Structure formats: C-alpha cells, structure tokens
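User
Take a look at the entry that follows and flag anything odd:
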Amino acid sequence: STRVSLPRLLETYFPFPGWFNSQPRPQPTLDDFPVHTTEKLRFADTDRNGHVSNAVFAVCCQNARMELLHDKSRVPLSIDAQFVVARLMLEFLREMHWPGTVEIGTRIDYVGSS
C-alpha cells in the first residue's frame, strides 16, 4: 500500500486556486526588509484574553507603511500623491501580548499602475 500525504491527496481531488500553495515557504527575517520601525503595544489593543487584537497587526503594518511612504529620502512622492493598497495579506504566526513592542520590517515588492 502507498501512503499519500494529506496535502497531496487534497491537490489530487480538489481544484485549488493558483494562490493556494500547500508547500511551506521559508519565513523572511527582519534583515530581508530595508526599513524598520517599532510600535509600542497598548493595553487598549488587547482583547478579553489578553491577546493583541488581530486588527492591530494591520494597524502596525499601516503605520510602518506610512513611515516609509513619507520618508522623502526613500520615496520621493509629492505631498498630494495618492496610493492604494490593492492587497494586504497577513499570516498570523504567533500571538502578541501587552505590554511590549513590535518591530516591523517594510519593503516595496511591487508597484502597479492602477
């Protein structure tokens, strides 16, 4: 008898969209990102179980992104320039707890035209 892994079995019988990849990816390190910023976690960011709310992860990313986009030495945009984040994907790897800080690495991977 041949043993088949669950991911391989699922790929065989279910048509997954192209963005779905059951193969583990190597996780980037902070050194893979040229811009670093630190955010202080607030007590108000926590839920009743003492975890930092999932929405706060996106807020931390937004603050770091704005810090990058408004750094004239890195991104020379005019003050009235507009941009849109077309896709934001978060992969929750661990919980965050208050009190503490989180260090965020930022980079631009792709600039579109719409």
